[in-house]
Amino acid sequence: MVLVCGIDEAGRGCIIGPLVMVGVLTDGDGAVELKRVGAKDSKLLSPGRREALFSKIKGIVKDCRVVVIPPSEIDSAVNSKSINLNWLEALKAADIINLLKPDTVVVDCPSPNVKAYRQYLMKLVEDKKTEAVVEHKADVNHVECSAASILAKVVRDAEIESIKKRVGDFGSGYLSDAKTVRFLEENFERFPDIFRKSWAPYVKRLGMKFQRRLEGF
């Protein structure tokens, strides 16, 4: 029985809230069942459909791991001289692989340099016999990654709703959302813990504030 781990993330590009990474472990029969229930790239599914699939997927897979990466940890990676966001994802993916111990892992690659990402990731994987498939659009092409993407999106959405209960409605958390941009402009100092402070728009807001203070002297 060949065990396959699919790994994907949700929330990489947002400025508010965590990045969520998920790994699911299944076999050939499980992959067939995941396809049967309709697991596909989470972006192709409605929120209601993702919610409905969440418990089904967890009931089908043999195991799964969920990693919630807060904005502070993302900022530390982005501001570091030795790591970046891609390598942070690789570190978390390796942790998942080392816990689930699959024969094969399928990873949705966040980097345009797939070869370099794969090499970095596999240096961190303890079992060097592990077969690795690292590619863009893995969540579209491999049902194991599709399942992971659905779990990650549902967990991420729940995290966002929890933050909204505390600070108010800010939309999706992505900068393509006008409501999110407006919330950032009005609340970047009031709720600093929810923002990714290393993102350029947040840095820009701080710079504008500092400039205004200088002009006030």
Task: Describe the protein in words.
The protein is an alpha/beta fold and 217 residues long. The chain folds into two domains: 4-165, Nucleotidyltransferase, domain 5; 168-216, Arc Repressor Mutant, subunit A. It has helices spanning 28-37, 47-60, 71-78, 85-100, 114-124, 138-141, 143-167, 178-187, 200-216, and strands at residues 4-10, 19-26, 63-69, 104-108, 131-135. The chain has a five-stranded mixed β-sheet. Helix 2 crosses helix 7 (143-167). The longest helix is centred in the C-terminal third of the chain and has 25 residues, at 143-167.
What is the topological layout?
Layout: E1 4-10, E2 19-26, H1 28-37, H2 47-60, E3 63-69, H3 71-78, H4 85-100, E4 104-108, H5 114-124, E5 131-135, H6 138-141, H7 143-167, H8 178-187, H9 200-216
Parallel strand pairs: 1-4, 4-5
Antiparallel strand pairs: 1-2, 2-3
Question: What would you say about this model in short?
Answer:
This protein has helices at 28-37, 47-60, 71-78, 85-100, 114-124, 138-141, 143-167, 178-187, 200-216; strands at residues 4-10, 19-26, 63-69, 104-108, 131-135. It has 217 residues and is of the alpha/beta class.
